[in-house]
Amino acid sequence: MGPAGSLSSLRGGGGWRHPPGSLLIVAALLLYQAGVTMTEGDSLVSVDYEVFGKVQGVFFRKYTQAEGKKLGLVGWVQNTEDGTVQGQIQGPSVKVRELQEWLRKTGSPKSHITRAEFCNEKKIVALEYRNFSIVK
What we know:
The protein is an alpha+beta fold. It is built from 4 helices and 7 strands. It has helices at about 5-10, 20-35, 60-70, 95-105, and strands at about 10, 15, 45-55, 75-80, 85-90, 110-125, 130-135. Strands 6-3-5-4-7 form a 5-stranded mixed β-sheet, with helices on one face. Strand 4 and strand 5 (about 85-90) form a beta hairpin. The protein is globular, with a radius of gyration of 20 Å. The protein starts with 6 loop residues before the first helix and ends with a strand. About 20% of the residues are buried.
């Protein structure tokens, strides 16, 4: 028999047994490797957004990407043909809320935001992107 805690000691009775909380630990480690830390009651969310005002030609996408990365979020940002900026944010709900507030009120230094709209918010079990990218 292998040492206590080895994979061979977890098997028995025709199937695999997991120590209590072991799957939670594995999930937390995977999120940690992806740069996401979770606190109790904090779930992953995904939300689409569109920002209106003077948001093109003022480095808005670059600043949005930097702010998203700083908060440990993933997703994307792009200019639209209508003169707005749109994208998707994913990560812990608390951090997503911080970026939503930033998109509403701060933006890039030379931008002038008139409004920001958010839609299609949903809980997700895993991040769908590896980083926060600018879509050209």
